[in-house]
Amino acid sequence: MLYIVGTGPGNPDYMAARARQVLEKVDSVAGYSTYIELVKDIIKDKKIISTTMTKEVQRVELAIDEVLNNVSCAIISGGDSGIYAMAGLVFEICKKRNIELIRHDPMTRNTEFTKDITKKQIILEIVPGIPALAAGAALAGAPLTHDFATISLSDLLTSWEKIETRLDLAAKADFVIVIYNPKSKKRNWQLTKAKQLILKHRDKNTPVGIVTGAMRENQKIIITQLDNIDKEDVGMQSILFIGSSSSDRYMDFIFTPRGYGKKYDL
């Protein structure tokens, strides 16, 4: 069995019960060192495959090799494993290596375990987790009640030209914009550029929520406005919620109306 597990925002209280169940029963766990540390109490008796940032391909290859050698393994990601995380890479590598994937569905209790599994087959289950955008939005208020677009400012795997295009179109279309990976020590100019692009289509007083370390010990919540976002304390653990033209601020929260007020005359 190969499991791809989203461990949620970091606090064990916000980990899905299925994720905990899987981590408790597998033989080995593969993950980025920071995420391994967050679940260390659950996996302390497991074989650990831990690598640093930029070693994602190596980590997935090692996990797949574990499973092909008849050892159950969980590849973990913070948040949800299918959102800016490891699930897609697993499929890429399995396709490249021509490994047949057999879906395991714990809800229907399928019988595919009774099949004769060959050396080029893997039984796969993807376990969802609470993503950073959901955890952060809950702390900021209710910024995602209406349509939104999610964009990462990291240009390590996506060209900045493409990121600029997406930012411009999302702002023009009046989506609430969720920004992942807004700033790091080496990438310290993209957030200012993003602000400038969005300001072409949105008022400078547009409410913005900045949540850092959601549900972790270093949690920090800032409610500000669009023209100040690059002046705030923002890092790689931060996620930004840039309101649409209908988003509003109430006390120390931001929210985006769904439209009930207009329909039912609240």
Can you give a write-up of this model?
It is a single chain. This protein has 266 residues and is of the alpha/beta class. It has two domains: 2-127, Tetrapyrrole methylase, N-terminal domain (Cobalt-precorrin-4 Transmethylase, domain 1, 3-Layer(aba) Sandwich), CATH 3.40.1010; 132-255, Tetrapyrrole methylase, C-terminal domain (Methyltransferase, Cobalt-precorrin-4 Transmethylase, Domain 2, 2-Layer Sandwich). 28% of the residues lie in helices and 25% in strands. The chain is built from eight helices and 14 strands. A six-stranded parallel beta sheet has the order 3-2-4-1-6-5, sandwiched between helices. Strands 8-9-12-10-11 form a five-stranded mixed beta sheet, with helices on both faces. A three-stranded mixed beta sheet has the order 7-14-13. β8, α6 (160-172) and β9 form a beta-alpha-beta unit. α6 runs parallel beside α7. The longest helix has 13 residues, at 56-68. The N and C termini lie far apart (52 Å). The relative contact order is 0.13. The mean pLDDT is 92.
Largest sheet: 6 strands, parallel
Spatial separation of the terminal alpha carbons: 52 Å
Counting H and I runs of at least 4 residues, what is the number of helices? 8
Low-confidence stretches: none
Q: Assign the CATH architecture of the largest domain.
A: 3-Layer(aba) Sandwich
Q: Under CATH, the topology of the largest domain is which?
A: Cobalt-precorrin-4 Transmethylase, domain 1
Tell me, what's the shape? Answer: elongated
User: Any idea of the CATH class of the largest domain?
Assistant: Alpha Beta
Return Rg in Å.
20 Å
- On the 0 to 100 scale, the average pLDDT is 92
CATH homologous superfamily title of the largest domain:
Tetrapyrrole methylase, N-terminal domain
Decide which structural class fits the backbone: alpha/beta
